[in-house]
Each structure stands twice: as C-alpha cells, then as structure tokens.
User: What shape does this take?
Amino acid sequence: MNVEITTLAERPQLAESLWFADTWPEFLLNDLVGRAHFGRIAEVFPEFTLVATDPDGTVVARGHSVPFALHQEGRGALPAGGWDQVLVWAFRDQRTGTAADTVSAVDVTVRADRLGGGLSALLLDAMRRNARARGFAELVAPVRPTGKHLEPGTPMAEYARRTRADGLPVDAWIRTHVRAGGVIDSIAPCSMTVTGSPAQWRTWTGLPFDAEGEVEVPRGLVPASCLPDRDVVSYVEPNVWIRHALA
Assistant: This one.
C-alpha cells in the first residue's frame, strides 16, 4: 500500500489535517475524560501521534498513543478504567515529570472512504515500531472490538475470547492485534463512560429514552441504562486490554 506513515513530530504541518470526520459514534465523543484530554494528545505527545498520507499528501488515517508509567507504585496492573484511566495517567505523568515505562495505543482511525484497505493494521504496526524505537518494551491497547456492537448483550469476556476455526479471534480488530503479536490480557469493564440526560441521548442517538431500563444504542458495545425519573442515562463500556511485547 502506497502510503507514508510518520509521527506528527516529523510533519507538524499536518496537525490540522488530523481531524477528518471520524467513525466513532456520536455518544462516545461525550466521554468527559476523552473530551478533556483526547484533543490535546497531538499537541502534548506529537512523537507518539502517527499520520498516514497518500502520495498526494492527503491524510487518510491517524493513530494516537500515549506514554505512561504503568509500573510505578500503586499501579502495576492494566486498569479496569481502561481508555479513560490511561489518558488520565498519561497526562498526569507528563505534568509531574514521571518517567514513562509503557506506551498505550489510544486511537486508530481510518478515513471513511479508505476503510477496509488494511490501513488500521499498518498504523498498528507503525505504532509498535515507534514505541520500540523510543526504547519501550511494551505497547498496550484498550481495544474496542469492531463487531461487539452486533451482540450488545454478550459479556465482553465471552466475546473477546471467541475464536474461529483457525484459532484466531472472531472479532476483526482483536484479530488484527493478535496477528501483530498482541496477547489478550484482561477486560477493562469501565473503559469509557458517558452520562447525560435523556434529552442529550435523544440528540446523540435518535432514540426516545422515555422508559426505565436498558436501551441498546446504535454501535454501542453494551446497553445504556435509562433512569428517566432521575433524568439520567449512563453508558459504561468495557474494552479489551491487549499487550504487545516489543523486545
């Protein structure tokens, strides 16, 4: 595939081009931790932000990762808080000058008209190579399985471990990680959290949210919990922690 992948630190002029229309569901863009930190990754960690361009210079995919101190006192295990927690740790460590020992993938997004062409695997490989080149021995990733939204009622632990006849994971994005050398570590049960009023959730999803109970939302990995009497809807998404040894 004829694309060039570099860090944003190497091509800072592409910073504004990173924000093409992405493929994340609208409600996930209202995860408060993500809203506070995600947009700052490219500025604070440009050497861990990857950009893929066509020969004409058009940005066709991006990959965000962050360095953080996994093995400092009080941490050690990959956190139940998954994506949200690793963002908090990374920015806290950067602010306090804490030495990082691990890199976490945070986002690999391919432009909608280039989906299905293998770019996500190329970005993941580049992310692994970039972390290794910077002296890190491990890349981790709180993975959002691409097919799980088709089975919102299936426990994530069951879904993540499901394999095909060839032994590879059924889920395409988990399979990409495993093919690249990743190993499933654990489930992050509260990796992303979105809480809002029923009115907000109506705007984000087009669903009524007028009755108490679980509501399956478009492209949600699990149902949201609706409590109209309290004027609140909560969505707590599990992700899958995958570890990539780089040594």
